[in-house]
């Protein structure tokens, strides 16, 4: 029994350090890889990490307050989600905004294009159309066509 504790404790500590260092919440979402995060970021702002807030959308993923609320009100460490600008500060931080994306896709991620696979293209459709209407084709609007073009740019560069 003592030997098992000696083995388990270091493993648990290492896992905790990994979650802390990567900013992960430990939630696994199928096909939400680092490459997918990069493409979602590229689609939103060409991953401009200096992007502040414009017209109520903040950070490299262009996150709105409503999106942040739907994602679970994620904040920077030691921040308070009740603080007026907590969502903006998190959305402007690349690592914190990834956690917002993760929370939103945990809630709304699904096979939006009905091809039998939930993948990064579906996550891009969720972000482009919103969680409740992700199956609408993106090519029907100028902004949707921009997102599709940027998504292809990113996929082709991988």
Description of the structure:
Keywords: Antimicrobial, Bacteriolytic enzyme, Disulfide bond, Glycosidase, Hydrolase, Membrane, Transmembrane, Transmembrane helix. InterPro entries: Invert_lysozyme. Pfam families: Destabilase. One of its GO terms (biological process) is defense response to bacterium. By secondary structure, this protein is mostly helical. Helix content is about 55%, strand content about 5%. The protein is built from seven helices and three strands. The longest helix is centred in the first third of the chain and has 21 residues, at about 1-20. The radius of gyration is 17 Å and the shape is globular.
Parts with pLDDT < 50 across at least 5 consecutive residues: 7-25
- SS strand fraction: under 5%
Largest sheet: 3 strands, antiparallel
Q: What is the overall pLDDT average?
A: 87
Please provide the ordered H/E string of secondary-structure elements: HHEEEHHHHH
Q: Count of helices?
A: 7
Which bin fits the share of residues in helices? 55-70%
Counting DSSP E segments of at least 2 residues, the number of strands comes to: 3
The CA-CA distance between the termini, in Å, is 47 Å
Radius of gyration: 17 Å
């Amino acid at each position: 029994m003592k030997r098992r504790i000696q083995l388990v404790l270091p493993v648990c500590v290492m896992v905790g350090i990994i979650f802390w260092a990567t900013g992960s919440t430990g939630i696994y979402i199928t096909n939400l890889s680092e490459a997918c995060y990069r493409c979602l970021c590229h689609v939103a702002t060409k991953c401009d990490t200096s992007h502040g807030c414009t017209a109520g959308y903040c950070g490299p993923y262009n996150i709105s307050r409503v999106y942040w609320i739907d994602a679970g009100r994620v904040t920077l460490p030691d921040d308070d989600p009740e603080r007026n600008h907590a969502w903006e500060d998190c959305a402007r931080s690349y690592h914190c905004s990834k956690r917002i994306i993760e929370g939103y896709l945990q809630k709304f991620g699904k096979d939006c294009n009905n091809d039998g696979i939930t993948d990064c293209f579906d996550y891009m459709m969720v972000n482009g159309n919103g969680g409740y209407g992700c199956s609408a084709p993106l090519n029907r609007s100028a902004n949707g066509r921009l997102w599709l073009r940027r998504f292809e740019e990113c996929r082709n560069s991988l």
